[in-house]
Amino acid sequence: MEQLVYIALLGALGCLCRYFLSGLVYQVFGTSFPYGTLAVNLIGAFLIGLVMEFSVRSAAIPPTLRFAITIGFLGGLTTFSTFSFETFRLLEDGALLIAFVNVLVSVVACLTCTWIGIMVARAL
After folding, report:
1. According to the annotation, is 64 in a ligand binding site?
2. Continuous H helices in 58-95
3. Whole-model pTM above 0.90?
């Protein structure tokens, strides 16, 4: 039960971070492209690579904390559903190129960020 509380608390924190970070990114870059969603997903992809690799190589992050961070915080921070919805809206609006770029950049950049997180964890 304690584990669920940690996941819920960090999940709520992740959701709040997503709300404020994506909002800030949209204020800076505008809404012509899903920049805010991309930004939080890139951050989350980097962090999951870092946390998971570091926790595999070290006992510094106990499983309870690892689950709270990855399932809770990063689950709240990142959003595949919003990515899907925004991409669908772009397709629906006829912005096929922007939708394609969103999918391509999101997948390639998130995988790259995860890899960078893993490499950083290995260097620590």
Report:
1. no
2. 63-67, 75-77, 80-92
3. yes
